[in-house]
Please model this.
Amino acid sequence: MTSFTFEEEEALSLDEADPLTSLRDQFTIPQDPSGNEEAYFAGNSLGLMPKATPPAMLSALSDWGGKGVRGHFEGDESWYQYDEVISALQTDLVGAKQSEVGLMGSLTTNLHLLMASFYRPSKKRRKILIEPHAFPSDRYAAASQVSWHGGNPETDVIEVEADNPDHVTIDDVVNTLEKYGDEVALALIGGLNYYTGQYHDLSAWIQQFRRYEIPVGLDLAHAVGNVPLDLNKLDADFAAWCTYKYLNGGPGSISGYFVHEKHHGDLDLVRLAGWWGNNPETRFDMHGQERFIPRQSADGWKVSNPSLFSIVPLKSSLEMIHEIGFGVLRERSMRLTAYLDKGIQAIEGVESITPEDPERRGCQISVRVQGDAATLERELIRRGIVPDARDPDVLRFAPTPMYSSFSDIARAIRQFEKLVR
Ligand SMILES: *Cc1c(COP(=O)(O)O)cnc(C)c1O
Model:
């Protein structure tokens, strides 16, 4: 095992040797109080702004100002099906066909829209199965879906029962299903857990759900742009993700979603419909006898016309990822994360709860500290290091392959160790 010093010189030479270090220059990096670039590890919460974004936004505004309503159909970047053009840039990232993905609304809203189709409780099967440490919004969404259908969230939202909730195993899934499998109407699983950073073995999990004929929805907020995904092959029924974390789409940017192609033609599947899910050929037929004709693709789940100003920043970011290639980024991500992990392991008194196996994690390392994580976070931020604390005792560090550096990591390790000591 290589041993690292985490001294500045070592980190600088690692940065010099890495072929993708200069990508950082394409981003605006926030500054600390003394005017130095921050060591930013919160890209798992909000990705940084590509420098290409402001001019792209200005150009979109200028189109609106110059064309008004004509902008829907005029010009190379007319708005009418612009979301579909940009959506096509996400197919590689999630392993889907173009017809299976779309952009609309926001993540939790989309989970609700998709659950409207895929959570259809019956007398016997009513439960929604979620993972331990599920993101609060997902838990609220699941509980309110149960209530909406007249059920009791206290009994009908259940978690995978895990011996160690920080590290869920396939045996935990198997055992939970043995107990409750026949009562579960939907599994709603965070692909990569936001708290522990564990990337679940989705293929193995979904195989188990299929044995009990349980529909599967995935929340990929922390997975997309971070780890490789293969949704079509995985046979997930639906998925949704936000684009402001690893996809750098900007605060509250438009959400991505997936509906497996096997469902596209199923007109018996209930959809909460709106005109944007209708066939574009007849979308504007408004003569009093219109009938909703859903598009036979993921687009059939759309409701409203999308916000242009939420798509444009995503475009600059997705184009950048495309140009570099996700595979290359993932390799760099693994190099950075391994370095961070080694540094954390060397600090006495803290413990990583993220899997050591690089295949079972993305770039995030979650560290359990002694005492209050929020205080440590505050102290680190004062020193120009930006992690993200989660109650009560977890600090998350996510070096992203696009703008984090070995130097950032070495700085963080040195400061973190001093503070912990
Ligand atoms: C970030 C995140 C969300 C956020 O939901 P929004 O609807 O975009 O506010 C939801 N679920 C998970 C797992 C997340 O990580």
In short: The two ends are 25 Å apart (CA to CA). Residues 326-345 form the longest helix (20 residues). The pocket of pyridoxal-5'-phosphate is lined by residues 106-108, 135, 137-138, 190, 194, 219, 221-222, 242 (CB under 6 Å).
